[in-house]
Each structure stands twice: as structure tokens, then as C-alpha cells.
Amino acid sequence: MTDTAWWKPTRYAARRPNLLKRAAITRAVRDWFAAEGLVEVETPALQVSPGLEPHLDAFATLLKAPGLRDGLALRLHTSPEFAMKKLLVAGEPNLFQLARVFRNGERSATHHPEFTMLEWYRTGADYRVLMDDCGAILHRAADAAGCDRLAWQGRSCDPRLAPERLTVQEAFHRACGIDLLATAPDPLAPDARLLAAEADRIGVRRAPDDRWDDMFFRIFLERIEPGLGVGRATLLHDYPVSMAALSRAKRADPRVAERVEMYVCGLELANGFSELADAAEQRRRFEADMDLKERIYGERYPIDEDFLAALAHGLPDCAGMALGFDRLAMLACGAERIEDVLWAPVAGA
Questions:
Q1: pLDDT at residue 246, as a whole number
Q2: Out of 75, 167, 221, 334, which residue is the most buried by the measure of CB atoms under 10 Å away?
Q3: Using one digit for the tens of pLDDT, what is the confidence trace for 246-278?
Q4: Which domain holds residue 133?
Q5: Other C-beta atoms within 10 Å of 308: how many?
């Protein structure tokens, strides 16, 4: 028996109060979604395409089956998004999942290689409805855990206050005096030189070959993120359209996308979109993301052609959100590390 074994009774006993709170939050979330009319689904973790965010590293495996002489290369999904959207196309209108998802190269106080993602979709809705959902989930999680405040690293948040709604443009102006959209006169090809000048002005270090996105994240992580979600949750929305991911452009302002992220105590908790339904545009974005992944990391993942076929068949007007459930439990328990709220961690240092 080692002193660091997670199953050592004294170590487990110290974590057990958090785990019981986690279980209570799980029940509360399931009950809330059921009352809202969403169906709980389960989709496979093994996928041809694990998710195509350029900076995520997926676990690879080989499926062996009759008729597959050389096997089929598969990966563990980084999100259940593609499969859940196929269910929307199939006719399931409103659904949620507490999915086990996998991301390699991620282990820290707030990251784990296998974790639980709460993901849900509503048809006939847009990202504004997701914002309402996020506030309701925080409230119910706090009630289930019996806590008055969500807390992390000395910051706290009242989960019963309506979250602040803040555009990305407003956040950059408030924290840094930067007119972010002015640095992207061509919304699909932002000008790195313009944002570099702003980074220099406010004293954020950068590399000579930084792309616009690189500088966006440097400024955001240093000057903006730590102050988000303090006192009350923050719903950061209307991202530059070049950072649209799987979201559609905003009809009232095509320079930005209908994307929203929730921050609590300076920690990113959720990411959602009014979903893009244009298969041709989605293919273009996937290919651009994989080109970037290949340039940076020397590899690319296959595009899920079945997913694009489903989009072409007809994805209903919908909105979807992914929330880090382990982080939610952390905040409700006031825990400092994600492993403090896991029933059992993945092996390894």
C-alpha cells in the first residue's frame, strides 16, 4: 500500500464529502433536464473523428472486428457533439448527456485526461436560451451541494445571482481599452499587426510570429479571464467570427458569432453555440482547423463525413452547450483540484 494511493481509506474519507455532493448535483441536474423535457441519451466514445479543435490531442485505438482485416483506426471522442447532432437530425428534438470524454496531454488542477462533460441541445432555440440554462444549472447545483457560494483560488461567486452578460468586445474594452473588432477589418482574416500594436501598448509579451489568435489568447488569459465570474457568473458572448468554431454568424452583426462561454471564479466552465447548419461552411472550417493542426503539430484527424452528411440532410435550428461537470463539482465544493471531486482518478502521475 502506497501513501499516495487514492483508495487508501484515510485519503478516500477526506474526499468523500465532496463525492456525496457530486452525486447530489448529478441527481439535481438530471431532474432539472427531465423537468425541462430533455431526453438523456448515450452515444459511443469511439469515433472516426474525435472532434476537430486544432489544439486537442485525442487518444487513438484500433477496432478489430470480422471483415476488418487491418482493423479500423478510431479515437476516443473529445466531445459527444457529432453523435448528438446526428440524433437531432434523426428526430430527437431536445437531449442531454453526461458523457465521459477523453483528451490526451491534459492533466492539471483543472484538467483530467478522462472527465465528465454535460452537453445539451435544444431545437428552436439560440444561444440566449443556453445562457438562461446556465444560470439555472448553477442555482440548482448550489442547492444540491448545500452551498451559498461557488469558490476557487480565493475567488467566489453567488450562484443565485443572474449571470452578467458581457460581449467579448466589451470585455476587451473594459479590461484593456482595446477595440477588438477594429483589429479585424476583414472579419475572416484578422490583422495580426493591429492586435500586436495593442499588445505592445498594454505590455503583454508576444512572439514575432504570433498569429492574431495567439495574441487574442495571450491578452485574454493575462488581463481578462481572471476577473470573469467573480461575484456572479459571467456569460461571455459574441466572439469574433474568425473564432466561430461550430457556431453560426450573428444575423444582426456578421462580424461576430453566436458563441457563449460561461466563467465562474475566473475559471471557464461552459462553451456553447447557436449551431451552424451549413454543411459546406462546416467542411471549410474543419479543413482550415486541420490545416492549422498539421502546421503546428504535424498531424490531422479525419473529418466525419457521416456528420457532414447529416448536416446536409438537415440539422434543425438549434443551440447546444458543453459544460465541464467536474469543474462544476469543484466550484460547489470549494475544491482546489479536479481530482478532489473524482470518484477515482486515471492512473499516472
A1: 86
A2: 75
A3: 899 999 999 999 999 999 999 999 999 999 999
A4: 9-163+229-341
A5: 17
Total domains in the fold of the chain: 1
Look up residue 238 and give its DSSP letter.
E
Q: What angle do CA 239, 104, 243 make, to 5 degrees?
A: 10
Domain membership of residue 298 (yes or no) is yes
Predicted confidence at residue 1, as pLDDT, reads: 45
Closest by CA to 256, choosing from 308, 184, 200, is: 184
In this structure, what CATH number is given to the domain that contains residue 124? 3.30.930.10
Arithmetic mean of pLDDT, 169-197: 95
Bridge partners for 240 per DSSP:
256
Predicted confidence band of residue 3 (pLDDT cuts 50, 70, 90): low
Other CB atoms closer than 10 Å to residue 340's CB: what's the count?
19
Round the CA-based radius of gyration of the chain to a whole number and report it: 21
Q: What is the DSSP letter of 6?
A: T
199 within some domain: no
